[in-house]
């Protein structure tokens, strides 16, 4: 049997995914069922109750695998970043992955939300009360469009200019992160209504078509290449990712850091030197600065 990271492995002392048989020990194994998130934002929690810690958020249209449905809570693993946790069953559509579904809105998404938030209306009329809010990165299937709106389901309309084809990406992930400036800090958050440090990095990179793990320690292992911090000549540039134990931020240029943080309780921009000094006073030092590989950049 192997040791595993419970954040990324659908295994508990009493239950595990069938594909883990022989790798992790559990009294029972279960085949997962495909699902898709059907609420604008769904909280993924550490335990099956609304008082449990929010570990991350799943966005509308995200694919998941359901391993347990118990008393209104689903134990799932998200497909995009592999995160495991509990979500309200009300947030799950169990029929949405059928490409031949009679309800066309339940087939595969075609577009993504490209703005921080876009409202869902019952008709193509902005004066009507909204049904939901879809965050940056949410995935929808556009059935038809007209009058400035896209229909994504029966009686569900989104402003068409807020959508982009699923295969397109943002050219500058730092510019995406900058759109969250002054958004409130929320542990486990991934939207402009509330975001944490690693959530800001993840959603900004994903908008640029770059896969990223959810948590800081996983990002530090997976993203880019480390810079040599020992040389005095080492200069930073836009897009460099700065890591501390349990914290991460993005460089806007060679001196300015953008990060969601609990000091300001906001997404804030400040000199890296100021942030480094304050965090060092609390007992933590920079562990690495990593740079994403670029075909037109010297590493």
Automatic annotation (TrEMBL):
<dbReference type="InterPro" id="IPR000064">
    <property type="entry name" value="NLP_P60_dom"/>
</dbReference>
<keyword id="KW-0645">Protease</keyword>
<keyword id="KW-0378">Hydrolase</keyword>
<keyword id="KW-0788">Thiol protease</keyword>
<protein>
    <submittedName>
        <fullName>NlpC/P60 family protein</fullName>
    </submittedName>
</protein>
<dbReference type="InterPro" id="IPR038765">
    <property type="entry name" value="Papain-like_cys_pep_sf"/>
</dbReference>
<dbReference type="GO" id="GO:0006508">
    <property type="term" value="P:proteolysis"/>
</dbReference>
<comment type="similarity">
    <text>Belongs to the peptidase C40 family.</text>
</comment>
<dbReference type="InterPro" id="IPR051794">
    <property type="entry name" value="PG_Endopeptidase_C40"/>
</dbReference>
<dbReference type="Pfam" id="PF18348">
    <property type="entry name" value="SH3_16"/>
</dbReference>
<dbReference type="InterPro" id="IPR041382">
    <property type="entry name" value="SH3_16"/>
</dbReference>
<dbReference type="GO" id="GO:0008234">
    <property type="term" value="F:cysteine-type peptidase activity"/>
</dbReference>
<dbReference type="Pfam" id="PF00877">
    <property type="entry name" value="NLPC_P60"/>
</dbReference>
<feature type="domain" description="NlpC/P60">
    <location>
        <begin position="167"/>
        <end position="293"/>
    </location>
</feature>
């Amino acid at each position: 049997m192997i040791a595993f990271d419970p954040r990324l492995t659908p295994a508990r002392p009493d239950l595990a995914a069938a594909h883990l048989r022989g790798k992790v020990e559990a009294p029972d194994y279960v085949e997962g069922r495909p699902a898709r998130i059907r609420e604008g934002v769904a909280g993924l929690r550490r335990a099956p109750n609304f008082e449990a810690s929010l570990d991350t958020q799943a966005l509308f249209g995200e694919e998941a695998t359901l391993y347990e449905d118990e008393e209104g809570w689903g134990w799932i693993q998200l497909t995009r970043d592999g995160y495991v946790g509990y979500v309200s069953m009300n947030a799950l559509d169990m029929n949405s992955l059928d490409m031949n579904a009679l309800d066309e809105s339940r087939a595969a998404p075609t577009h993504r939300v490209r703005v921080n938030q876009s409202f869902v209306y019952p008709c193509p009329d902005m004066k009507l009360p909204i049904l939901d809010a879809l965050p940056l990165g949410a995935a929808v299937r556009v059935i038809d469009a007209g009058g400035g709106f896209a229909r994504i389901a029966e009686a569900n309309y989104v402003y068409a200019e807020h959508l982009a084809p699923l295969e397109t990406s943002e050219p500058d992930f730092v510019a995406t992160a900058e759109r969250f400036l002054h958004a409130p800090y929320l542990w486990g958050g991934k939207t402009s209504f509330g975001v944490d440090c690693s959530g800001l990095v993840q959603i900004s990179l994903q908008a640029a078509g770059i896969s990223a793990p959810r948590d800081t320690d996983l990002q530090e292992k997976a993203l880019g290449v480390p810079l040599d911090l020992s040389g005095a000549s080492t200069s930073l540039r836009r897009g460099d990712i700065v890591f501390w134990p349990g914290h991460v931020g993005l460089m806007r240029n060679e001196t300015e850091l953008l990060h969601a943080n609990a000091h300001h309780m906001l997404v804030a921009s400040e000199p890296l030197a100021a942030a480094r000094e304050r965090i060092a006073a609390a007992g933590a030092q920079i562990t690495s600065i990593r740079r994403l590989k670029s075909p037109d950049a010297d590493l």
